Amino acid sequence: MTTARLPLFPLNSVLFPGLVLPLNVFEERYRAMMRELLKTPEDEPRRFAVVTIRDGHEVAPSAPGIPDPTAVPEPGPAAGFGTDPLRSFHKVGCVADAATIRERADGTFEVLATGTTRARLLSVDASGPFLTAELEPVLEAPGEEAGALAEGVLRAFRQYQKRLAGARERSLATGAELPDEPGVVSYLVAAAMMLDTPTKQRLLQAPDTASRLRDELKLLRTETAIIRNLPSLPASELTRGPTHLN
């Protein structure tokens, strides 16, 4: 299987194929990454890999008291990830394509990227100004009964949305039709549900689409039942993803 070496962007969240990722880049190691990506011709994809942090800090101490008042600055591209960065990250991540990289006057960057394909982390190199990684693509089969499962997940997801929105007709899709392709459904629902990071990571690395959809169906039924019994839960704005500081 063909491998690729890409810049590596670790986050405390999970990126799924097809989902948009806004980034506010201010750490020097990631500024260097964006400057390098800008060297790529505009008609070619500006790709980097996003992996979820298993053990470490998304933002490393860059100056005394930032971000922790007691923090001691850590130099280098692997700051915050220990002596062996490979052990600090989950092994399945997502390749991202940066559609927009805009440098601000202060040297920070505003980036808008989209997840494209899953990839498995094979090695991490911390010898340059930013982390790079050797990755191999993670192919996904549909699995058995993916189409029927996707229909069931969409029905359950609509109920989940209504519960979150206080039984009103507000929708994640803001009136637009939800997709019906099983793989797209599985990633959209995984990204939109209010789940902890380990659970989202489990969904990302599911062996096939059907397995992910089965897991999501159980999660949706459980979460909807919880919300039903906790009517004071505030509705969440699901149409907007977080903007990561890095």
UniProtKB/TrEMBL annotation:
<dbReference type="InterPro" id="IPR003111">
    <property type="entry name" value="Lon_prtase_N"/>
</dbReference>
<dbReference type="Pfam" id="PF02190">
    <property type="entry name" value="LON_substr_bdg"/>
</dbReference>
<dbReference type="InterPro" id="IPR015947">
    <property type="entry name" value="PUA-like_sf"/>
</dbReference>
<feature type="domain" description="Lon N-terminal">
    <location>
        <begin position="3"/>
        <end position="224"/>
    </location>
</feature>
<dbReference type="InterPro" id="IPR046336">
    <property type="entry name" value="Lon_prtase_N_sf"/>
</dbReference>
<feature type="compositionally biased region" description="Pro residues">
    <location>
        <begin position="64"/>
        <end position="76"/>
    </location>
</feature>
<protein>
    <submittedName>
        <fullName>LON peptidase substrate-binding domain-containing protein</fullName>
    </submittedName>
</protein>
<feature type="region of interest" description="Disordered">
    <location>
        <begin position="60"/>
        <end position="84"/>
    </location>
</feature>
